[in-house]
């Protein structure tokens, strides 16, 4: 018996369709996954079911909930949401009212249902304690905030829960905990779930039916087992393949020569200024030592806030150590004091391909910026370097005159790599190089990175939280927690037999592979 | 929903056209006015609007249209120079605060607090006490008042931009902080500053009118729209027209500037575009 | 820490900042009016004054003391309520200013209250119905209101209500102790002249803030809980939108004080403004000095109140350490 019946749904903005002619049936008791990359229309579909689309959306087609079309009247629709549908959104920080205690926000949801229910038992069900009700959203962690969202969604004991990317703003370990929580609650309450995600493995672990969307259109749908083990469409096959990271280390390339040495490096951030004297400074990086050989690919993994990014920023010279020092091919430095003559040999690829280019500069000017580190290049050589760089990442030299907004996320990340290579560095630091990209292009970018490493004999330091990517790319893995390196080893050995509590937790949080 | 873009850009077009028309009329007064503004004639005073004097004459028989043209020039000049002072000092201060942080930022912020504590009229009072009233007095007073406004807009915009990775990339490429400010921050906050400039220009025109009205701004024989209202003060109960014409001129100019500013903001600032779509991407 | 509750600590910090700003502002005023003219006594008396009269005034003003002593005498004098002696009127400045404040202060406060009471609800109404006819009409009205100089609006109000309709007096002021209701009637038109253009600004700011907030995720969450858009905006939006509005309210007060000084002129009110014009034309430095510091105090104090209100509304702010 169907609970949600979508028929010929089309959603457009200014005449451009974002979802076109989508038909889906979700039965009572289903755990239905909707998977797609950015721009697939998956979130819009969820909003359409709840009647929460932005005002300027033009909608056609029908959506029936429990046999009846969605009410047109705003009050009736609000009532339906309050009584029968619970929604969990992606970003738990902005989805909660920052000025209101979370207990009051949950209580408000309970009152709106007009049913019995109490805040304490809801908090308990989602694994929070009574004292958390007194907190404001900013006083909770990301995972706790998402639990509050779930508690609010459960307030009316809804027939349907819609979870829109509920874990993608959380860190790896918390992601798994929240996913398990959602699954347990659905089991216990026999609730229908619509789970929207870009993560194939999360859908596989949680759902029994699946729909794959791309560019606003349905690619295919069916039971999770069928669709994932025998995908009917190329696109689905590509998404499934992207969940399995093939090793990319290639032939042995590590040399004996030490390129970078980090020696008892510490970075302290004073907490508060003038008014909070006597507070302990926060040690973002705490007495870290490591060394990297020429040609090696070293990965630094750890949860958010473990200090891995601060470490990377010091290595490339964006930040300076409080104590300790580093040596790069014999040049001692603490970070910002890296002599500009040496900066050309070191570069950084940023995580977010959308923020890493000045929208007002042409690609040629952005790519050419680091070349000022190499004095004495004449205009022809300058031009030559740009062309080499952009062609080495598989893009066309004609693109140099374009502007950043003309490129897709994957192309921009290629351009960011080109900029990092334009000075012909020996060490490249990659800060989450693919985590902001769509799943289907991640593989291509990683292939490119591996190929460039072989071609130019590059040394990589990869900063990441993604164990699968790290296992595929790195020769050696360092695990970081609270500013310290807690475990180190070759990826195969390390992940097969983790020793430290954190490494074990990271491994345990890893979602199971999709059965072939 | 195309009505929005149709609605927006006519706003910008109408606002800008009206502003430019007034500015041209004002500039015209430099070379030509229907009557010389100093032309006093008791015989034809308090003339009602008619074919000879389109907007009538004042208590001294001066042609109101000529006075308004010349007064508009004063208003625009004072407002624009105050914007130049404000942006010229405020934007570099704001940028410096954003790129250097630490003590530089602290000083700029405290300076801003301090400057906000002195409304333009208080600065005008202080300057008038020391140097006597005058139009340059109004320029300085309004200009000083504009400084912290531009400093805060520039700092806020620059801070938002400087968290983006391309600024870090520029630092890695060896650009100095001032170079980053000029090459990467300034172009990206230019639209914010232009929009703020139109707002401060319209506020400046209002402030000039107020200061001239209480005698701290433009002094005779020069004229400004505020000064015309000051002259009308003792007579407007009997001759309301003397206050209506310059007052309406101020209102229309300020509305034109505000509409142009709103239009510019919508047209220039991509952050404000497509707001409805931002939270459903994906 | 934890000895003091966060809010108390926050307020103490704000008060400290307020005092520092005030002290520097006083120093700036002192520097401009006491040191910059060279010899204030000669400045006051003009070029033609005899050396004897200059010397006498120097003695009376204590100008032979070092600057720092004069500055601290001025500050501590003010703390005791002694603002010095007006050189032209030969009266204590404190009394002169207090008399005038009996007009200026109520006028400013009335204008503030009226503009808030009119502006905020209209802004909320426009945001609630954004894109609809109500919104467009209100915003056209606000766009016009913002452009009207308050003193000119005062002239228009006089023409309509005092000359044509004869409901209210065209100007002048009856002292409070003679006939308080007449005093109030005298302040009605000036308050409206000040308040309505300010109300237009507030309505615009309130609308913009609320429209911004209404596109935020937590409004969507509230709707997902079962509220209509209007309910969500009212229960969750308004309080969040008040944060930017509070800042503007603080700045408004500065504009209102300036406006009061100007609008008094239209209605021939014996307020602070007229006292200051006289002081300027008579080069009464002591009077100008005290009047300006009072104005600066009023503005700074309002900013302090706004900051504290900010902390009360926003729990995140109380904890931020700056």
Based on Cα principal axes, name the global outline of chain C.
globular
Strand order of the largest sheet of chain A: 6-7-8-3-9-10
Helix content of chain A: 25-40%
Q: Gyration radius of chain A, to the nearest Å?
A: 25 Å
- Ranges of chain A with pLDDT <50 over ≥5 residues? none
Can you give the helix content of chain C as a percent range?
Answer: over 70%
Task: Describe the protein's architecture and organization.
The complex is a heterotrimer of chains A (516), B (282) and C (322). Chain A is an alpha/beta fold and 516 residues long. Chain A is 34% helix and 26% strand. Chain A has helices at 42-50, 74-84, 102-113, 119-125, 142-154, 172-189, 200-206, 224-229, 234-242, 308-316, 340-343, 363-368, 379-392, 409-421, 439-456, 467-473, 491-496, 501-509, and strands spanning 2-13, 16-27, 31-35, 57-65, 68-69, 85-88, 160-164, 192-197, 209-214, 217-223, 258-269, 282-293, 297-301, 323-328, 331-333, 346-349, 427-431, 459-464, 476-481, 484-489. In chain A, the strands form 4 sheets. Chain A has a 6-stranded mixed β-sheet with strand order 6-7-8-3-9-10, sandwiched between helices. In chain A, strands 16-17-18-13-19-20 form a 6-stranded mixed β-sheet, with helices on both faces. In chain A, strands 2-1-4-5 form a 4-stranded antiparallel β-sheet, covered by helices on one side. In chain A, helix 4 crosses helix 5 and helix 14 packs parallel to helix 15 (439-456). By secondary structure, chain B is an all-alpha fold. Chain C has 322 residues and is mainly alpha-helical. Helix content of chain C is 78%, strand content 0%. Chain C is built from 13 helices and no strands. Chain C has helices at residues 6-35, 40-45, 51-61, 67-79, 93-128, 133-147, 150-164, 180-214, 217-224, 229-266, 272-281, 285-313, 315-319. The radius of gyration of chain C is 24 Å and the shape is globular. Classes of the chains: A alpha/beta (516), B mainly alpha (282), C mainly alpha (322). At the A-C interface, helix 2, strand 6, helix 3 and helix 5 of A face helix 9, helix 10 and helix 13 of C.
